[in-house]
Specification:
The protein has 5 helices and 2 strands; from the N terminus they run ααβααβα. It is mostly helical and 162 residues long. The chain is globular and about 45 Å long.
């Protein structure tokens, strides 16, 4: 197994640990809504970007099994949705400037990690894509997902289970 696959496995282990430690059971339903709704956004967007040839994911977790969906299973369906869950569940109650700083910090960290992976590994290759497109699209996806989460939370009926 090459180093890139070990990185993917390590990222998945960290993501699972993050779920266990940072998502309380009392908010599991909210977390599921975030995860599933973000996948509705990232799956078609990821497919579009890959099919247009802007990004390529040469090393996949399941090598040779991903002929039809060449997006990054780890990123699109696992890591980014978990980041969005943490983003929305812990969104601070601040003004517009504080919210903008929160968005920039989350998205900036995520973009820096992807840019480092693009430069140092074969997990992602930019063709007609740059780091600022990642920054912009991650911001848009987090914004749409968080707005949906806020709408969902307004309609949420809490049930006491004993």
């Amino acid at each position: 197994m090459n180093m890139e696959r070990w990185i993917l496995i390590g990222v998945i282990v960290i993501a699972i640990f993050t779920i266990i430690k940072l998502i309380p059971r009392s908010r599991a339903r909210e977390a599921w809504v975030n995860l599933l709704f973000l996948q509705v956004i990232t799956w078609p967007a990821g497919l579009f970007v890959v099919e247009m040839g802007w990004i390529d994911y040469p090393i996949q977790l399941f090598d040779g099994k991903n002929h039809y969906n060449r997006t990054s299973l780890t990123f699109e369906f696992f890591v980014f949705p978990i980041v969005a869950i943490i983003f929305s569940l812990y969104f601070p109650r601040v003004g517009k400037l504080g919210a903008m700083i929160y968005y920039v910090c989350f998205t900036g960290f995520f973009t820096i990690i992807e840019a480092i992976l693009e430069k140092t590994t074969r997990l992602v290759d930019y063709h007609e894509w740059t780091w600022y497109w990642t920054f912009i699209t991650v911001n848009i996806a987090l914004f749409i997902n968080h707005k949906y989460y806020q709408w969902f939370k307004q309609k949420l009926i809490t049930v006491n289970s004993k």
